[in-house]
Fold these 2 entries.
Entry 1:
Amino acid sequence: MSTLEIRDLHASVGKKKILHGVNLSISSGEVHAVMGPNGAGKSTLSAVVMGKTGYTVTSGSVLLDGVEMLGIPTWKRASAGLHLVMQYPTEVPGVMLNDVLSEALKGRGRDGDIARLDTLLKTEAGRIHFDEKFLDRPLNVDLSGGEKKRNETLQLSILKPLFVILDELDSGLDVDALRDCARRVMDATSEDSLGALVITHYSRLLTELRPSKIHILVKGQIVKTGGPELADVLERDGYAAFTPAEVAAEADAKDDPMGLNLFP
Ligand code: ADP
Ligand code: MG
């Protein structure tokens, strides 16, 4: 049983403070959703947890089984068991999918044999209805939005991380692809005890990826945590109901302590 714990995380981009003390803890096999409006800081949270450059963590911790992930390079976080499915997966011309996965597996001390990997890739591709012809492409190159997300889900199924952050898995996906990807992730939570942090602003995704907890992120803070029923409340009332005036005022004041309004 593993735990990913985000403790009082504050982060900025340039002079703009984006995360204002995020607390969240997730264990193996659990699915938690982070929901929030555009610009709430959801992608920033995923970027900071994975160590993407350009973000400054001003305080807080990201602990994987008690080990601090902040300050160590992204590849080490990945080999420790963290994985991000990006909102907009990157195309990497010239780099083949099976080579990437083979190296990643070897880097984790696992079997990276290409022939065995190719067999496994075909089996896993079948599970999510990802056309085998795409397996011979450079990473994500010339794939549609939906195919890219299927490709990312495929990598997840091979690498079997401890925790995955799915940043808007639903963006760019049609309903069939969404169902295939979401079901594969749900299967991994039971087959491999994968812990999944599902970032989305639509409750639609959560009918397939069923979270036990939903965290609502507004203006860089988790303003409410509850059970799956929170998604229905959001659907009905929108995010406005979860933006208490004091939270908005506090976030604005932290962004702009002298009231200069330099970064509106
Ligand atoms: P979400 O994913 O919830 O829509 P983001 O984390 O992408 O939100 O963005 C939160 C805020 O931080 C937005 O106001 C966005 O413009 C700003 N932001 C995020 N990344 C950057 C960046 N690299 N440079 C400048 N501003 C950024
Ligand atoms: Mg985002």
Note: Confidence is low (pLDDT under 50) at residues 259-264.
Entry 2:
Amino acid sequence: MTNKSSPGLAASMKDKLIQQALERRLRQTTNVAPGPSLEGVNGAVHSVPEQFYRFDQHPGYQQLRIMLDGAARFGLTNPFFKLHEGLAGAETVIQGARYVNYASYNYLGYSGHPAVTAAAKAAIDHYGTSVSASRPVSGDRPIHRELERELADLYEVEDAITFVSGHATNVTTIGYLFGPRDLILHDELIHNSVLQGVQLSGARRLSFAHNDWEALDRVLSDQRQHFERVLVVLEGIYSMDGDYPDLPRFVELKKKHKVFLMVDEAHSLGVMGQTGKGIREHFGLAGGDVDIWMGTLSKSLASCGGYIAGEAALVEHLKFLAPGFLYSVGMPAPVAAAALAALRCLREDRERVATLQARGQQFLQLAKEAGLDTGTSTGLAVIPVITGSSLKATQLSWALSRRGINAQPILHPAVPEKAARVRFFVSCLHTPEQIAETVSAVAQELQKL
Ligand code: PMP
């Protein structure tokens, strides 16, 4: 992809200006003048700087304001929190206008599928909208058990447990099971929910280069003996890049070094493998080759929540003691029913998975032919177009929006500035024509930036 030189230069000047403004503002906010002394007033004895008792002076908020205000000065409208007026699938309506949509994880189109909608409605009629307390207290519903049984069957493992949030599933599972004498190793691109879980656990954390099992082997050879439990965490498909690990290699390392292996299948369930059973099916592995199968119900399964599948001792332990399960409300029946119905659709309907895979390959192939930088994407549902700067990613996203295409920019600090991108989530409901038109629009708009 070649850029015309003058607009390209202007864009990098703008990048620099935003960066300089950010640095100036941060310098100002870190050299804080003390607030008025409160000594003697209502027994308060300390002078407390305003930033410690005002949210508008919180450093995170100040940074956010610099970014949003800076973008507004350059005429860029905030690309986040758009208002979608109905079902967001391969198409969506935003403020009255219809778009081809690449900003939803509704990979298999099961959100909005008549069988899934009907199951959720029937569950409301039967059980109501809430289970009104945690499951140990308010009890299970048959729908919880059916969902967990079918998830365990999918992985060919003993049992499964579901949580009300995918993010909280990682936080509470890792946070609860591991502690300060343990080591957690993760791919450098691992999702935030894993990092939060590690932080909560107090375990030592080390990352290894993306998908580099040899680097992991070296760290384990060096470090294994210094810790009690060791956990290695990977993703099935990496959500920013759309590539995946050579899982059999990691399974070998798990056995060699006697560590636990956890795989987050948020983006690979329903997407990878001939029948959509995920990375395990793709590589022909046994359920027991991975200790902790984790996934979310919010993507291919058209619902909300997360799960852990594995041996009975793991699941029972989490059910009785993981704080995010024990002290949090049980999954509402319609939410469980939607996921269960989607899981059953997935089992019976092979065509959607094959179509999703074909559409992803088509997108990737055309993008490569157009000279777009798609990084390491394998064309499995997630395809980034790397623009090289946050400003360009935002501009590209808006240019596409003007052409009736909705795709979100991913900006620094979510990715390194040079790796800023517009990310496309493909659905099995996209038509080949929509994909061809989108790739051609991306190539044309990038040329103009
Ligand atoms: N893991 C990964 C890899 C994710 O991408 C996400 C969110 N997209 C989560 C966990 C959290 O899942 P949820 O959004 O369902 O809470």
Note: The chain has two domains: 72-109+350-448, 114-348.
